[in-house]
Amino acid sequence: LKEALKLNSEDIEKLKEDLKIKIKNSGVGAYIEQIENKEISSSGNGVPIAIKNNINVKNWELDCSSNILKGYISPFNATVVEKLQSAGLSPFGLTNMDEFAMGSSTESSSYGKTLNPIDNTRIPGGSSGGSAAAVAAGIAIAALGTDTGGSIRQPAAYCGVVGMKPTYGRVSRYGIAAYSSSLDQCGPITQNVEDAAILYDIIAGYDEKDSTSANIPYTKITPNLNSNKKFTIAVIDNFVAQASNEIQTAFNKAVELLKEQGHKIVHTNMIDTNKIISTYYIISSAEASANLARFDGVRYGARKGDGNLKDMYVDTKTEGFGYEVKKRVMVGSFVLSSGYYDAYYIKAQKVRSLIKAEFDKIFENSDLILSPVAPTTAPKFGSYSNALEMYLADIYTIGVNLSGLPAISLPVAKDKEGLPIGLQLIANSYEEQTLFDGALSME
Ligand code: GLN
């Protein structure tokens, strides 16, 4: 990205033509246009940035990889797209994702699956699997993804690229299709840490169009990047113990390297990860059921049923939503319903506060946390025997979203099969400078 930003408009045109040819031949299905055999969507003549299929680009079809939104043409730009354009960059192609960003494998897309470019028999991760696969396959200069419970960091780790989730409120959610509004954040997926900082600097900042946007002064990261700072880095021992042996080995090596560089490592423990999983899936499903209620056949995309109002609602949702989305809407409606609200939803909100308090405590005497991103490297297609198994692979990422913290996933090693291993650094809220500086020293 850094290099592409130096190109003149003629060279950028050439770059885009090259990318289009490479995309056609790549075979990973990172872009929905590629899967559909269509011309790559492109507007403007700036450096091309791949856009996850849940971010509004004016006059482009936006369907969040769901049948329910087929044919919906976006009338406006998301703030992040406006910001790209003001900085001279341009949206280029829509990347595949799990339907409405619900999933960890990019398999629940209405377009079908995206392959992991490192090993085509494996999932690219998700839900921003298309964005991560595109960057890893060299068919995107950089991409935007969204992270509600790990959807930027986990596919970045599985594909061997860098993925960053900003502090909740740092990047505007305006114009990004909501999955779980108190958790969603948009962020960069790039080839290296500096590119991530560059793209983050472009999209971050207060936006009055998003009521949860943080009106907190913000200094650009990139001009102040410094890989020589020394930090106190916390390791959560009971988290690390749940990762595969290979990930633990890579983790321990990274810790040794950080020590050699002069960083101080401190050891700690945290709340049982199963509690984090339950809390996340209650809150995110509850918010999803409220957010997705608007897709009823009246206002957006597809309309089904030819009879009365009820049939229209029922048929539109029955035919439009896929299995995973329906399940979450039902779970969400259940935990919000009278009689169960206190037992599930309110309880989950209380546990969410406890999780946040535990992170706060760790940050009282450390600058960063080092953690695995996922318990294993990219699994093979079909290796999860049920959805719960896939949910359990989110143990390391979702606590960060529940606490609103910024985090960055970095490729640090390869396992013996050549699959990338990613680790993440987590910083305190609004400490993105510390996050990027720490990440740079690990690169
Ligand atoms: N895997 C998580 C889920 O299915 C996270 C998804 C995301 O971050 N969008 O909800």
UniProtKB/TrEMBL annotation:
PROSITE patterns: AMIDASES (PS00571)
GO cellular component: glutamyl-tRNA(Gln) amidotransferase complex
Superkingdom as given in the UniProt entry: Bacteria
Catalytic activity: L-glutamyl-tRNA(Gln) + L-glutamine + ATP + H2O = L-glutaminyl-tRNA(Gln) + L-glutamate + ADP + phosphate + H(+)
Annotated EC: 6.3.5.7
Keyword set, alphabetical order: ATP-binding, Ligase, Nucleotide-binding, Protein biosynthesis
Top enzyme class: ligase
Residues covered by the Amidase domain: 45-435
Any one of the GO BP annotations: translation
Endpoints of the signal sequence: none
Molecular function as annotated in GO: ATP binding; glutaminyl-tRNA synthase (glutamine-hydrolyzing) activity
Keyword flag Protease: no
Active site, UniProt feature: K52, S127, S151
UniProt function note: Allows the formation of correctly charged Gln-tRNA(Gln) through the transamidation of misacylated Glu-tRNA(Gln) in organisms which lack glutaminyl-tRNA synthetase. The reaction takes place in the presence of glutamine and ATP through an activated gamma-phospho-Glu-tRNA(Gln).
PANTHER family on file: GLUTAMYL-TRNA(GLN) AMIDOTRANSFERASE SUBUNIT A, TRANSAMIDASE
Complex and partners: Heterotrimer of A, B and C subunits.
Family classification: Belongs to the amidase family. GatA subfamily.
Protein's name in the database: Glutamyl-tRNA(Gln) amidotransferase subunit A
Biological classification of the source: Bacteria, Pseudomonadati, Campylobacterota, Epsilonproteobacteria, Campylobacterales
Gene symbol of the encoding locus: gatA
